[in-house]
């Protein structure tokens, strides 16, 4: 399935949020509707840098609303999360416009966008936002302390690297590192959140925190599908490369999306 996109904007409360709408050329009657959030370590990122993952989601059969939350990046937590929650509410309320009134709703994101997607899933549970059917997290930034073995292997340092700088900007001050929406790795109560697909790779600095989060979700009774790619991926840097040439991991990740949509009942088998 091929996918194309158009650009629009949505009301995010504090500002208008640019979005790209991705659609495949052969959709199911009620395709899954995904709000996607790009990476960028809370330092940057754009709709363009999120194109590769948004395209794969659309090729997997979803209608994708990829939202650019970067207007909130200059402000500490919870601005970007609040903005994303506002946009999610708009997407949910207009699902008949974007896809179909019976479409299942998902959140998805890579790296910093994965942090926001995980935080949104927690917010949706706590605020009784009953429409969310799944969360898709790729290399999610979940643990601001960056002390895992996969981070040490990547030689990511607590200062002078993009993730530490991004965490410092996003958290604003140390107390926010304990907030479950800001640092989902330290959320004490995970039961009741939407089913999750968590994708990482052997060469991914966020591998260990991703897998630990998957285990904790599973222990809390949440349906979890996890995948660790063994091939070299260059994640998270390669997420932002132009998808004109499909990456070596593209087909595998797209298949993971399809299977997750099927398992959650959003697409027929």
By CATH reckoning, the class would read Alpha Beta
CATH A-level architecture: 3-Layer(aba) Sandwich
CATH topology: Rossmann fold
Order of adjacent strands in the largest pleated sheet: 1-2-4-3-5-6-7-8
Helix content: 25-40%
Describe the protein's architecture and organization.
The protein is of the alpha/beta class. It has a single domain, classed as Alpha/Beta hydrolase fold, catalytic domain (Rossmann fold, 3-Layer(aba) Sandwich), CATH 3.40.50. Helix content is 32%, strand content 20%. The protein has eight helices and eight strands, in the order βββαβααβαβααβαβα. Strands 1-2-4-3-5-6-7-8 form an eight-stranded mixed beta sheet, sandwiched between helices. A hairpin with a 4-residue loop joins strand 1 and strand 2. Helix 2 (79-93) packs across helix 4. It is globular, with a radius of gyration of 17 Å. The model has no long low-confidence stretch (mean pLDDT 92).
Topology, element by element:
Blueprint: E1 3-11, E2 16-24, E3 33-37, H1 51-59, E4 63-67, H2 79-93, H3 95-98, E5 105-110, H4 112-126, E6 132-138, H5 149-153, H6 162-171, E7 196-201, H7 207-219, E8 224-229, H8 250-263
Parallel strand pairs: 3-4, 3-5, 5-6, 6-7, 7-8
Antiparallel strand pairs: 1-2, 2-4
Helix pairs in contact: 2-4
Domain Alpha/beta hydrolase fold-3: 34-225
Keywords: Hydrolase
GO molecular function: hydrolase activity
């Amino acid at each position: 399935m091929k996918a194309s996109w158009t650009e629009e904007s949505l009301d995010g409360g504090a500002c208008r949020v640019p979005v790209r709408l991705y659609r495949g050329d052969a959709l199911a009657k009620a395709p899954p509707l995904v709000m996607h959030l790009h990476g960028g370590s809370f330092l940057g990122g754009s709709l363009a840098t999120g194109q590769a993952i948004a395209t794969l989601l659309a090729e997997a059969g979803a209608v994708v609303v990829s939202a650019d939350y970067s207007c909130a990046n200059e402000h500490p937590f919870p601005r970007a999360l609040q903005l994303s929650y506002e946009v999610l509410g708009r997407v949910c309320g207009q699902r008949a416009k974007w896809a179909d009134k019976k479409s299942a709703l998902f959140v998805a994101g890579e790296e910093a966008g994965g942090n926001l997607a995980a935080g949104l899933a927690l917010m949706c549970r706590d605020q009784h936002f009953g429409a969310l059917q799944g969360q898709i997290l790729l290399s999610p930034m979940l643990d601001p302390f960056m002390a895992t073995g996969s981070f040490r292997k990547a030689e990511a340092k607590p200062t002078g690297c993009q993730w530490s700088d991004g965490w410092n900007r996003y958290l604003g001050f140390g107390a926010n590192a304990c907030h479950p929406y800001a640092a989902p790795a330290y959320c004490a109560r995970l039961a009741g959140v939407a089913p999750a697909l968590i994708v990482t790779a052997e060469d991914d600095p966020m591998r260990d925190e991703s897998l630990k989060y998957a285990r904790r979700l599973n222990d809390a009774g949440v349906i979890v599908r996890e995948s660790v790619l063994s091939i070299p991926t260059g994640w998270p840097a390669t997420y932002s490369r132009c998808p004109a040439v499909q990456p070596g991991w593209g087909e595998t990740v797209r298949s993971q999306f399809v299977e997750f949509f099927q398992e959650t009942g959003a697409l027929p088998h």
